[in-house]
Amino acid sequence: MKQIGLYTKKVIEHFQKPHNMGKIKNPDAVGQAGNIICGDTMQLYIKVKKNKQGREIIKDASFETLGCVAAIATSSVITDLIKGKALEKALEFDKAEIVKELDGLPPVKVHCSVLAVDALYEAIYDYFKKKKKKIPEKLSKIHQRIKKEKKEIKKRYKEWEKNEEEMYKKIINEKTKK
Fold first, then answer.
1. Position 141 pLDDT exceeds 90
2. Which pLDDT score is estimated for 10?
3. C-beta separation of 102 from 8 below 8 A
4. What pLDDT is recorded for position 2?
5. What own/partner pairs with CB < 8 Å and gap ≥ 24 does 80-84 have?
6. Which of 13, 55, 92, 148 has the greatest number of CB atoms lying within 10 Å of its CB?
7. Which entry of 36, 38, 91, 114 is annotated as an active-site residue?
8. Closest Cα partner for 65 from 5, 106, 15?
9. Catalytic residue among 72, 82, 112, 142
10. Domain 3-177's class?
11. pTM for this one?
12. Is 68 considered catalytic here?
């Protein structure tokens, strides 16, 4: 495993030349996840098709991520890992698989792999919901956790926006007094 600063060579490769970046035209489902600490956000798009055995598989996947080196690299690698996977198998993904595929992440950046997995789970949840399929209990619990985190992100953003606006008004008032 070759390191380049904090990151492995694979992380840098996925960051510099991300795989499957951008929207898929007419996705079957979209998952969105964000991190309340660092502010990274990810959208994961999937297309689902039935294979020869009649199982639903992820035929294609892509992403849009606003975030750091690790967020983009984990987004890129998860799209590679899930293509061709049955939906049930994709629900078994965890951050360790992503970290392993990238030959590691700095401990402070492991949360980025959680972001990628959460976006995947949200995409599968979205797919099940759109197709009116029974949502597994594990997936429902994960969705509720992510939903709660999204609510917290929106709340914090509104507070930040309000503070920014107040600071701006204060600066303008001070300039007009001069």
1. yes
2. 93
3. yes
4. 65
5. 80/19, 80/20, 82/46, 82/58, 82/120, 83/58, 83/59, 84/57, 84/58, 84/59
6. 13
7. 38
8. 15
9. 112
10. alpha beta
11. 0.83
12. no
DSSP, residue by residue, 67-91: S-HHHHHHHHHHHHHHTT-BHHHHT
Domain ranges of the chain: 3-177
Four-residue CA torsion sign, 112, 56, 30, 73: positive
- Does residue 175 carry a pLDDT above 80? no
**Which of 143, 99, 101, 153 minimizes the C-alpha distance to 121?**
143
Q: What is the pLDDT of residues 48-80, one digit of tens each?
A: 999 999 999 999 999 999 888 999 999 999 999
Tell me the CB-side half-sphere exposure of residue 4, using CA atoms within 13 A: 11
Q: Among this protein's residues, is 38 annotated catalytic?
A: yes
Q: 61 near 29, Cβ under 8 Å?
A: no
Report which residue type is found at 146.
Answer: I
